[in-house]
Amino acid sequence: MSVQERKERERAGRERLIVTTARELAEQQGWDAVTTRRLAERIEYSQPVLYSHFRGKREIIGAVALEGATEMAGALRAATSATATATDEPRARVVALARAYLDFAADNPAVYDAMFQLDGGLAFAEEDTPEPLKDAFAAFLETLGEVAGDGVHPALFTELFWACLHGLATLTRAGRLPPEDSERRVELLVDRLAVV
Q1: Which residues contact 67 (CB under 8 A, 6 or more apart)?
Q2: Closest CA relative to residue 146, chosen from 82, 102, 196
Q3: Alpha-carbon separation of residue 118 from 61, 97, 130, 179 (angstroms)
Q4: Which of 53, 61, 132, 145 is in the most buried spot, having the most CB atoms within 10 Å?
């Protein structure tokens, strides 16, 4: 391995450590607790080293959001794939997708916030949208496109369905919706919106 390759690997390792530490701190104490000073202390590097990787908290949030989008896309595909193996019913795949999304949001609140609530400096639904965000949307579209209905643009239907799931995730987490009815909400959402 060349000196340059070693330096690049070390740099990538430091960057990975910063993102992982920021994510852990945010999950434990919330995003307000994530400061460059605290991160530098936790990873045992100076703040200038941290700034050599990220210009500030906004870029760190963006990195966590991209990582989260990749994980969410994987979770959605795994859920719909497992269901497709068990049954060929589109409704079952849509229900599995909805459950996987809501589970991801509940299990990863700080990551979810980085993805959808906080400013990570990322472009959504534009030409320069980062690939992990496009892929997360594609993971939705792969399942929802087939149940949009005649004459309904699949991407538009996917946006609407996703918005409903985001609302459910956000309101449930905020204690605005009783958690015991979450399964009934998913069933109603699928039955009323999806053409299955």
Answers
A1: 19, 23, 111, 132
A2: 196
A3: 7, 24, 16, 24
A4: 61
Would you call 168 helix, strand, or coil by DSSP?
helix
Whole-number Cα distances in Å, 45 to 4, 15, 18: 21, 11, 10
> Which has the closest alpha carbon to 62: 27, 18, 12?
18
**DSSP secondary-structure letter at 174?**
T
The token pair at 91 is 């409704």
**What is the per-residue pLDDT across 78-98, written as a single tens digit (0 to 9) for each?**
999 998 776 779 999 999 999
The residue ranges of DSSP E strands in the chain, in sequence order, are none
pTM confidence score: 0.93
Q: Residue 169 is encoded by which pair of tokens?
A: 């995730």
Question: Would you say 112 and 122 are in contact if contact means Cβ atoms under 8 Å apart?
Answer: no
The residue among 54, 52, 53, 65 whose CA lies nearest residue 23 is: 65
User: What is the C-alpha to C-alpha distance for residues 21 and 28, in angstroms, rounded to an integer?
Assistant: 11
Tokens of 118: 């906080």
DSSP string, 132-160: HHHHHHHHHHHHHGGGS-TTS-HHHHHHH
Chain segment 153-196, per-residue pLDDT in tens: 999 999 999 999 999 999 999 999 998 999 999 999 999 999 87
